[in-house]
Design brief:
alpha/beta; 6-stranded parallel β-sheet; 6-stranded mixed β-sheet; 28% strand; Rossmann fold; 2 domains; 10 helices; Quinone Oxidoreductase, Chain A, domain 1; binds NADP nicotinamide-adenine-dinucleotide phosphate
Length: 313
């Protein structure tokens, strides 16, 4: 099968389109014919091996799985000996082990809602599960500020908080203002033109880069700040902001959370229901060919992606 393969960590062009053996599903896995595979910031961490902390997961010297990519939507081709839930031909989405390929093996997948294309379903798992975790417990009438609203996680966070009945303000750059409004935000702040003002019950900081005192001023006295991401944490741990939050937490009256989201089937089932009834819809900006994964990663890293981007083999 064709796959994007990396022998070492490095910039996106370490990836090469090659013919490799099709993977064999373990007893609890399915083999999926990939129709679409989402790209997110985690993809870049997988390819670059940065910050170095991620190599504990992906492999210390070179990637243990030489094909990157987690998000997937596709069709079950084969099932492992212990799998009873799926049969060949079933359409599924979730995460797989090396999805920038024609086939991948996967354990954490659920049935794809029929109303979704594979391109849409392949753009769900990592970003939407993160957004679900950070917006959980949001109540109707609450004021929510989503910083980084036009990106992968943000495009789902705006929709999920809006669906919960919150009044959402989205913060993004000028090229994403119309997208964020279309996702349900009642107010959109273009951070290149206007300062952030007001007070919010929940501030979801996906973009990073703003000092804690600035974010704290945006919170109501009993509000919550959730730190989702930031790409400025350095080459070693990459978690400077999360540690900064831990140190500050005891001194704040407001709540401060820095969750690490893990994609689980229960969350995918929950999202599947919301996707099936149209409560949320993946915002897919562009589709790239399998051999163009390096261009896709660069497009995302340069901040161009409006919502999500996907790769189709
Ligand atoms: N904690 C977890 O479990 C978890 C899970 C998934 C992802 N993450 C992290 O979350 C972060 C975002 O991931 P993502 O997939 O959503 O990335 P993304 O698709 O690149 O979205 C980030 C968005 O932030 C916007 N942005 C950049 N500078 C900004 C600023 N100063 N103010 C407001 N918005 C700004 C970008 O575009 P514009 O500037 O054009 O608006 C972009 O739309 C990454 O650091 C990722 O590693 C964490």
């Amino acid at each position: 099968m064709k796959a994007m393969v990396q022998d070492s960590y490095g910039p996106p062009d370490v990836l090469e389109l090659r013919d490799i053996d099709r993977p064999e599903p373990a007893p609890d896995e399915v083999l999926v014919r990939v129709h679409a595979a989402g790209v997110d910031q985690g993809t870049w961490h997988q390819v670059s091996g940065l910050p170095y902390l991620v190599r504990l997961v992906f492999g210390p010297r070179h990637p243990r799985v030489p094909v990157p990519g987690l998000d997937v939507s596709g069709v079950v081709e084969e099932v492992g000996a212990r799998v009873t839930e799926f049969r060949p031909g079933d359409e599924v989405f979730g995460i797989g082990k090396g999805t920038f390929a024609e086939y991948t093996t996967a354990k954490t997948v659920v049935r794809k809602p029929a109303n979704l294309t594979h391109e849409q379903a392949g753009a769900v798992a990592v970003s939407a599960c993160t957004a679900l975790a950070v917006t959980r417990g949001v109540e109707a009438g609450r004021r929510v500020l989503v910083i980084g609203a036009g990106g992968g996680v943000g495009s789902y966070a705006v929709q999920l908080a809006t669906a919960a009945g919150a009044s959402v303000t989205g913060v993004c750059g000028p090229s994403k203002v119309d997208l964020v409004r279309s996702l349900g935000a009642v107010e959109v702040v273009d951070y290149t033109r206007e300062p952030l003002t007001g007070q919010y019950d929940l501030v979801v900081d996906i973009a990073g880069g703003r000092p804690f005192p600035v974010l704290r001023r945006l919170l109501t006295p009993r509000g919550t700040l959730v730190l989702v991401g930031s790409e400025e944490g350095g080459h070693w741990l990459g978690m400077g902001r999360q540690f900064g939050a831990l140190i500050r937490r005891p001194f704040w009256t407001q709540r401060l959370r820095a969750p690490i989201s893990i994609v689980r089937r229960a969350a995918l089932d929950e999202l599947s229901a919301l996707l099936a009834d149209g409560t949320i819809t993946p915002a897919v900006d562009r589709t790239f060919a399998l051999g163009d994964v390096p261009a896709a990663i660069t497009y995302l890293r340069d901040g161009h992606a409006r919502g999500k981007i996907v790769v189709t083999p």
